[in-house]
């Protein structure tokens, strides 16, 4: 589709420097109408100011939406049912937000009759892939405009010069500008670039925004109790909560106790290695607690199969294949496994650590004390049966050993 065929485009709009430049650039380069979409997914900043900025640039159709409940309920919770973690450490905080934004971009394009969607992701990162794979999966014929792959504005200075030339108001924040590229939602906040590009350099303490330094966390442990229904947390300390409220509450409690910081080198889908630092306080608790409730309610082979499939699931999310048939197929299996994942988990939080100190399920526990006890078991388990079990399982080993002589 040529530029002349684009009459209207929906832009994922933050109100910041990059996307404000993109608004004007789309108007100039494509001679089209721009619709802005600003999502509140718990990033901790006011999104309403984006309306005034968009209006000042002549935008008539402005979408500003609170998607926090949908984000946690339909994206974060399903992912944590899978115990998903990428390359052993990353809890996929940025990755899981992109399919929701892609979904709404496509829906708004349909509602407004737009010909295209646009985003501000760079040509070096994973987000361009996540946005676009999601959009194509949901609307195969959609046209996508990625300005960072088209224009020659390749620095902050060139963006500011463009603003000066076109009369775009730029908010000049007072104080020291953060040297990091940051992205936040209700699940996490990420830090990249600046001093972090040297993988040997330790992050500065003032970089971290959500978590207390473990050394400065309270000297007394904090205990919390989570109640699970079908693999999802529905209450904290006996108080029923919505999914977004659960995550916000856990973020606060975990952050106060110095929980959730990681510093990793990750393999981007585009081929490069990249260093990222992440704060995922509530998510760190969710992963630990979910594995604890599964340990008492989930069948052994079902649990082991989930563990085998989890890296594939995590990679699908990381690489942008949330809307793929294989992720949806895996999700069906994972959700089926959660039918009896009900009960309570008690956790002890102390100076950056999360320890499981109790788990129970009155109706769905597979733990039978009468079988597992070291005391007299009243015949529930005949220890003599173990001899035949061991010999049968050793048969192939004994045959192989005999062959070796």
Overall description:
Among the domains are: about 140 residues, HUPs (Rossmann fold); about 140 residues, Alpha-Beta Complex (Argininosuccinate synthetase, chain A, domain 2), CATH 3.90.1260. It contains 12 helices and 14 strands. The chain starts with 7 loop residues before the first strand and ends with a helix.
Provide a brief overview of the structure.
With 405 residues, the chain is α/β, with parallel strands linked by helices.
Task: Detail the topology: elements first, then pairings.
Layout (H helix, E strand, L loop, with lengths): L7 E5 L4 H13 L3 E8 L8 H8 L5 E5 L1 H14 L16 H15 L3 E3 L8 H12 L4 E3 L10 H11 L14 E4 L4 E4 L29 E8 L2 E5 L2 E2 L2 H14 L4 E7 L5 E7 L1 H17 L2 H20 L5 H13 L5 E8 L2 E8 L8 H4 L12 H20 L1
Parallel strand pairs: 1-2, 1-4, 2-3, 4-5
Antiparallel strand pairs: 6-7, 7-12, 8-9, 8-13, 9-10, 11-12, 13-14
Helix pairs in contact: 1-6, 3-7, 4-5, 7-8, 9-10
